[in-house]
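Below is how a single chain appears once it has passed through the pipeline. First comes the sequence as given, then the structure the pipeline wrote out for it. We keep one example in the README because the format questions we get most often are answered faster by looking than by reading.
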Amino acid sequence: MIRVVLVDDQALLRAGLRALLDAEDDLEVVGEAAGGADAVRVVRATVPDVVLMDIRMPGGDGLEATRLIVDDPALAATRVVMLTTFDLDEYVFEAVRIGASGFLVKDTEPAELLRGVRAVASGDALLSPGVTRRLIGEFASRSRPTAMPAASRLSALTDREREVVALVGEGLNNDEIARRLFLSPATAKTHVSRAMVKLQVRDRAQLVVLAYESGLVRPGWSPG
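Resulting structure:
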């Protein structure tokens, strides 16, 4: 069972999300909050698998709540997904950089939202290739230029692992990486897992951020 906490200042939106999620056999809403401070309290009390967090709330900062949740060792297995009104929200990159596993636009189709929650719970990042290039490519260049510490961390990787991390930065999943590099999906997954361990990143979303911050993938870059 995938346990979910909903954080949004709009009670109507939370009610709609709860009805959608609770109707699924493998999903359960275990808590709700209307602001950032309450969100941290509810998440610490329930220890959910996934938190759907509104990025902009009058009663509390979704970014600060995300930071506190991600930095709490007791919540290491909890994944935060940001809810936003616009897919090009300037706060989304910052949220992913501090530890969110991706984002969903609030008017996402129900089936897509359900797939997203399940994907994040299984360890994937909610960053599609197109959105990755437009959003992170745009805001990485403004938020944090190529960082030498991030670049030096890549020295721990093999050439193949660097190649794989670059493709993760593009937004490709394991099957797509396997096809691009003529590998089996299992081998691609192994390379991704080893890179995450060596780079000490929380999940694939963090791997995407590191790919940009290290200069391995350049802002505005688009694959051939």
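The chain has eleven helices and seven strands.

See the next section for the split statistics.
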